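Appendix C reproduces, verbatim, an entry submitted by the partner laboratory led by Prof. M.T., so that reviewers can inspect both the input and the predicted structure.
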Amino acid sequence: MKHGSLFSGIGGFDLAAEWMQWENVFHCEWNEFGQKVLKHYWPNAISYEDITKTDFSIHRGDIDILTGGFPCQPYSAAGKRLGKEDDRHLWPEMLRAIREVQPTWVVGENVLGLVNWNGGLVFEEVQADLEAEGYEVQPFVLPACAVNAPHRRDRVWFVAYSFNSRYKARRGAKEEKDGVQAVHRKKMVTREFNGTSLSSTTPNANSNGFQGRISSIEYKQSRSSQGDAQKCLPTYRRRLQFQNFPTQSPICGGDDGLPTELDGITFPKWRNESIKAFGNAIVPQVALQIFKAIQAYEATRKEM
């Protein structure tokens, strides 16, 4: 599969795609430090900077999955929560990129505060916008501790799928919008999702379809916690006290010494920028589980 990422940061989605052995076609990141990291680890990918000044139409019909952790600061409980009044409210730019690229899959990520900001206004807007573009949308609340990270880090993940988007973009075909075809497509998606509501934020752990695969990252355990990351981990992991938890970044590699791999970055700048970058980054291990579910669904669909 071919993958493109927006608001790429230091490459959380790109790393997960690499683990899946997918092709990272392009990334888009305005931060200078993030650009250096991305260009170092994915030198063959096209590198864009400012999303507001980038036309992605060149990739129309050529991308299977488009991802993006659109900026969370407008909705984070740690910030001023200015929402759509914040100049970092860039969901409209991601939506424009989706229209231009027309990928089959879209995966978006944001902070949990998006769910209740202004009564869920933007949370609902994201889903409505994607549905207006022809996507079936399923939001999930998945924490980092569900993949055994030693912190909770709840995040909202939007997984959207369009049966026809890439086909129409690549072939230029004009699909008939009659009721029979619409019902057929709905039945096919519903069969894989095992009859669960596509607007629910709670995965069905008993499902054998897409949601059931997502739930394999211990969603039930994570939601039983009352904010204590230790409680949402299996007992044996608590006993180990994370003694085997990696202390080095799987993204940036190296230790905390001089960053010789990235030219032009002094140690003080590396330290400051890397702390900020990791704070903004997605957890690639969570994205990996979503990607596995997507690939499994694609394999099932091709057999139909």
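The CA atoms of residues 35 and 181 lie 44 Å apart. Additional entries are available on request from the coordinating office.
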